[in-house]
Design goal:
about 50% helix, homodimer, alpha+beta, four-stranded mixed beta sheet
Chain lengths: ~210, ~210
């Protein structure tokens, strides 16, 4: 197996943390997004959507999209379970993970990619170039901030987001918070429950991945 | 069990088709999005993200987000499997479903919600009001059209999107194509493989759900 990775990007980091929690040591190949390597013909043959991460299996099958990769790894290496133990737990994990992707990750991505000069004409990831939209940067900032304020209320009296145990929802939330720091936005600001939770999850060894 | 539903909205329809494929007959409660019922305090207690669909279990547990609901239903009623039979198949289904959500569903939602007068100040679903952004409408139209052009190439020689069998990825794609018709955009236009596939899946009895 091999992971097509990008050290700095948030989505590959979600997979790296997921692997670290499971003590999986899978070879990684860095894809240089800054140089546009993901837009090359060679990389399009691996993922026509021009995105990282991609997990390549030994038979050559390629799996892109974080949820697909992590679900596959959960089957291959179940311990520790990061999607819950039962159908009910799995539903809660997927629900929180989807919410975090929709308002958290997408909101911060809108903010970052429509603001930083490095993303000029790359306002959204993928195959095409799109111009930055300043209104979208503002909306993304508001949307993600409002979401993490709601998440703070949810975390009152809780150690983890979806279950009584660490799950992929915690990974997604931690990565989004660190992604927002690209623009010095602290999503935990004024949110004591979120701060307590973040202090705890970000000191796990896997957080360095 | 009960499904909080909205007949016209695309995401609840994905769940209704999923249930119809499995012959599940679950009571539905209509949520009147046009009247803002999803923004009421009563509905926020069911889903603080103010979105449909939500599946309420008999013990009162609520599950929101299409993927979480459908994964739960797949465990409760496995036949026919709509997420694949093996870890490898499941990864392909989730990969294609995520791609369809990212460029297909999100793209069409950007186009529709930033264009139609009925979505004035509701340019994105959820808890907050956001103004329409005309540039985002154009981007969403381009993004979804470009994605379905790529999907047409993928469908060459294939009967279904992710597997040799119908899956949730086919449901998502069909619902997105029908959603785009709100603005008379035909995503199958000029795409013969997509047209053949759409003719086939849209005549399944579940498509009426």
């Amino acid at each position: 197996m091999k992971l097509y990775d990008c050290t700095r990007a948030p989505n590959p980091r979600r997979v790296r943390i997921f692997m670290a929690e499971k003590n999986l040591d899978i070879p990684k190949q860095e894809v240089d997004l800054a140089k546009g390597e993901h837009l090359s013909d060679a990389y399009r043959a691996i993922n026509p959507e021009c995105a990282v991460p991609v997990l390549e299996l030994d038979d050559g099958t390629t799996i892109s999209e974080v949820l697909a990769i992590c679900t596959y790894l959960e089957s291959m290496a179940p311990e520790p379970l990061l999607f819950g133990k039962s159908a009910e737990e799995r539903a809660q994990v997927l629900m929180w993970n989807s919410r975090l992707e929709y308002n958290g990750l997408a909101g911060v991505a809108e903010y970052v990619r429509n603001t930083l000069p490095g993303f000029k004409d790359r306002a959204i990831s993928g195959t095409h170039n799109y111009a930055q939209i300043p209104e979208l940067a503002e909306r993304g900032k508001h949307r993600s901030t409002a979401y993490f304020d709601r998440l703070d209320q949810h975390l009152e009296g809780r150690d983890f987001i979806a279950l009584d145990a660490f799950s992929i929802a915690d990974i997604t939330a931690m990565v989004v918070i660190d992604f927002a720091r690209w623009l010095k936005l602290d999503l935990t600001d004024g949110n004591p429950n979120l701060q307590r939770w973040y202090q705890s999850v970000s000191t796990r060894p896997s957080a360095k991945a």
